[in-house]
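ping. complex inputs:
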Amino acid sequence: MMLEAFVQGIGILGPGLSDWYDAAAVFTGRRDYAPQPTALPAPSLLPATERRRTGRVVKLALAIASEAIAHAGAEPEHLRSVFSSSGGDGHNCHEICLSLAAEPREISPTRFSNSVHNASAGYWSIATGATLSSTVLCAFDGSFCAGLLEALTQVSVDRDPVLLVAYDTEYPEPLHSKRPVPDAFGIALVLTPGREDRSSARLEAALGAGTPDELEDSRLETLRRTNPAARSLPLIRQLALGEQGSVILEYLDALSLAVEVVPCR
Amino acid sequence: MRPLVLRAFTAASCIGRGLDQTLAALMEERSGLAPCRFEAISLDTHVGEVAGIDAQVLPSEFLRFECRNNRLAELALRQDGFDEAVEEVVRRFSPRRVGVFMGTSTSGILQTELAYRRRDPVSGSLPPDFDYGATHNSFSVANYLRRRLRLEGPAAAVSCACASSAKVFATARRMLDADLIDAALVGGVDSLCLTTLYGFHSLQLCSPGPCRPFDAARDGISIGEAAAFALVERVSGKESADDVLLLGVGESNDAYHMSAPHPEGHGARRAMLLALSDAGLEPDDIDYINLHGTGTPSNDRSESQAVTSVFGAVTPCSSTKGATGHALGAAGALEAVIAALALRHGFMPAGVNTADVDPTLTAHYLMTKRVAPVTRVLSNSFGFGGTNCSLILGRAG
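pong. complex structure:
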């Protein structure tokens, strides 16, 4: 069976990349890439009480998922979802570990609920009423490919449209020194089994042993190397160029994912 | 779906290390829960601790993976010839064609909790021996098993709270159907840590005594720990009658609340219906239901309504969490292994600790084990964030 999906919508947010159109301008050379701290919008999907409780990772995931859905003209309740990230809410995790290293050991209920790796997926499904399957993955630096592979198997095998949301944010010190992700970056794709009105490209993927692609621009290459979700950048670039071509994405050790991008004209 | 066969399986929990001990405890209706003595914790609660984790060593080339969660994984790997079964599959296919999909909720976070007590008093930095990626990160246990068993196929941790290690079966099934792999090591590993003990306590979801699922006086969960593994591959047609098959998987989302189930169990109901349709079965085809049955007032009420709405009040069901505790991210795989034992040995486990079944819960709850042929079992796992997963396992003959 061929692993295949059509790209309906894209959402992206990261340092110096404010949305898909902005990122496309960078990758097509219409503007220079200038890294700036990632500005995360307040999650307007959530009621005010919930909004206050969410950290940067949920804001990031909801922002890129919302952009991809809008771009695709899709209804979130008709999409399965795959969320993938190396870490969860690093700031929340730090606060929990601080509290547990002190006396008396105490965690607030909200901190605990937000500590689960699937917190972003939970907030997304509650905010949008998405009741279809939601799978939440981690493969450390290979988390983007793990998510893309899961999404592609859901599209190809189960023939259902899928929202893929891959994202990672930073830990504060002292964990930051042990896991130096500098800033928030995320990418979301709406993938469907068949070609639709808004399909921008067809993806064909295969596992292999090819050396992962790097990016020519050293600042973008730094982003690719330092945020697990940014391992997606060679694919994002190919999608932005709107040209047929293949990319090799980093997954696990010698195992990589080759993706052929065929624009829909 | 096309059925998969469980070529090998094993589990380690507080009721037993390996299949023989686990089966004996289930047949004798024994609970492994005991007052919490873990890590000088003063909480008034019971836990299900696996004996001998601290004595388990990892092979010397994997020392950076050293943490409670990976030691528990190593301990289980050596049971029931499971590691040899993996080696046999690797020989039959190739390392590139065997995947690893592991459910976990907290992975080796205990290592970080302990490292925070050893921060440098001046700089605040974590000790040099602390390795985040090999211990705390959710991928740690899948990564450890992949390297330890010299597998080279696709791998991921599934971390959907307490549904994690049921959902790994769905991920593996799709990878097999897509012909990316020929076999997969699936399962779940979750171990005791301070985050979950204090966290569930803060939500007032921990029972002071051993948990009593479906009891009128149930008052919360008992946290457990477990490692449970299955080696799945496509059915060859040469299965024996005693072989256990994965027949169907159903996945859904409540889209209701982060830490409370939908009050009428709508999401749970959909997961069970999807699993039945995936397996091409009717509710009458299921002989026994292994419930999520955590012992919280809300979970058991919501799950009972969901079960009754699909199966009526006739299909026998029970929660084995009174025996094992709630193994969180490992619960789905642990209960899949218990379902496999029920199928192979012809019995339905009792809901231990439960004294008086809540009369408002209409599902047919088993207070004592029932010895009878069991052909098909449905197993439920639900988690924070509203994730639901139901598995259907059956005998090959």
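Chain A has a mean pLDDT of 97.
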